[in-house]
Amino acid sequence: MFVISVFAMSQASIAQEKDDALLFANYFTGNSMRYDFHHAGNSENEYYYFDKVVREGEWAGSKVSLINPFDYGEQMFWIIDSATGTVIYKNNYCTLFNEWQTTPEAKHTPRSFPESVIFPEPKSCFTIEFFARNKKSKEWEKKHSQAINANDYNIRPFANKHENIDIHIGGNVANSLDIVLLPDGFTAEEKEKFIESCRMWSDALFSYSPFTQNKHRINIRAVWAPSEESGISIPGNREWKKTLLDTRFYTFGSERYQMTEEFQKVRDVAANAPYETIFILTNSDKYGGGGIYNFYGLGSAGKTGRTGEVYVHEFGHSLMGLGDEYVETGNTVSALYPEGKEPWEANLTRFVNFNGKWEKRIEEGTPIPTVAAPGSTEKEWKIGAYEGGGYLEKGIYRGWPECMMKALTDFCPVCQDAISRYLDYLCK
Ligand SMILES: [Zn+2]
Does residue 47 sit in helix, strand or coil? Predict the structure, then answer.
């Protein structure tokens, strides 16, 4: 198996840093391109089966930040210019398939999930290469490679079908984070209800630092696309609804885990607005949601309980893969966070590569592990390494006692730093 060296990756980044402005105009048309495939396998193996290439609208990402330098995610893909062999685009992400691989079903029943990645449309022939992390070593392994002629007549055009509506416009498309909000389970009569939910989503996001301070470089647009039936499927109650994106509760047997397996349908609706990141609002009062890095986030739009906080928590996952900082009592082993391997999430550490995380923000003399005195308040806390996180009680650490990624409070200083860095990259 081919394993990417850190050296090769840093070389790709350097090539990009040197001629930023030139690179985009030299290699890309300015449109978005989408590669659809099926991600199939079982608990041990994964395979990628090509479906189609679609040419979409305006590229909404940065024209400067083309090589994602953050080593986040379980999956990664590269676009290589065939004439020069240069890596001209790279991005990282996670998938529902990878989560499914950890379920009991994956041990005995192979399955496939529709998936898709987007990237700026290359002007000429290119190769797309996919990499996945090895389950045990966590090293990248090359999984799939395909040469594509950018002028192939099989590349499909995308026709806009749905209206898009501005919810909040902070800046221009290229230098802002472009978020698209999609409806599921809203009928034609429920348009206003959806738009109101989008406004609430926007208000919730901007009420938390560091999003508050970055309002001027974040755009939020909604795509209006009605469903045949109102509400969301709840398989555990034997309730099924005909909805646009086929969202349902009870994903992988977990009642509150609300997701859709139809990712290409999600892309079809999202492409009606310029976008970089997707969040789905479902027409349900039932508590639940989910968020997967560079895939999509999802939350119930019913105004019950802590809807706004759930939105922002799930967006922390889907925007940049922040890890859950909470503990599941009695949980000692996790396939997600094997012992001796540093989690790739910016807000969790096993001290394998603490230096690359928030270690430098810890004041001298702070005990490691750090313990918050019983009854102490936020004013007395210090950035440290507090044991427990990533669903585990022991052996994994977070930087602050409380966080949006733990108990739906404000983002901790470690997460705030990581989000700010990520926005700086996306909004160049
Ligand atoms: Zn945090």
Answer: strand
Distance 317 CA to ligand 1 centre (A): 11
Mean pLDDT of 25-51: 97
- pLDDT for the residue numbered 34: 98
Give me ligand 1 centre to Cα 288, in Å: 20
Kindly report whether the global pTM for this prediction surpasses the value 0.85: yes
**Dihedral over Cα of 406, 409, 412, 417: its sign:** positive
97 alpha carbon to ligand 1 midpoint, in Å?
26
Q: How far is the CA of 392 from the centre of ligand 1 (A)?
A: 15
Cα of 142 from ligand 1 centre, angstroms: 31
Residue 3 has a pLDDT of 37
User: How remote is the CA of residue 175 from the centroid of ligand 1, in Å?
Assistant: 26
| Ligand 1 centroid, distance to 104 Cα (angstroms) | 30
Task: Give me the chain's average pLDDT, please.
Answer: 93
Of 130-139, 264-273, 415-424, where does mean pLDDT reach its minimum?
A: 130-139
Question: How confident is the model at residue 254, as a pLDDT?
Answer: 95
How many residues are listed for the chain in this entry? 428
d(CA 234, CA 230): 13
**For residue 250, which amino acid is it?**
Y
What structural domains does the chain harbor?
6-157 (2.60.40.3250), 163-320 (3.40.390.10), 324-406 (no CATH)
| Residues whose CB is less than 8 angstroms from the CB of residue 425 and which lie 6 or more positions away in sequence, other chains included | 62, 65, 68, 69, 70
Q: What is the rounded CA–CA span in Å between residue 267 and residue 56? A: 10
Compute the distance from residue 413 Cα to the ligand 1 centre, in Å. 7
pLDDT tens for residues 225-272? Answer: 999 999 999 999 999 999 999 999 999 999 999 999 999 999 999 999
Res 22: pLDDT: 56
CA–CA dist 105, 79 (Å, integer): 33
CA of 353 to the centre of ligand 1 (A): 17
Question: What Cα–Cα distance (Å) separates residue 263 from each residue in 66, 259, 298, 383?
Answer: 23, 10, 12, 38
- Is the predicted pLDDT of residue 360 greater than 70, yes or no? yes
CA of 347 to the centre of ligand 1 (A): 6
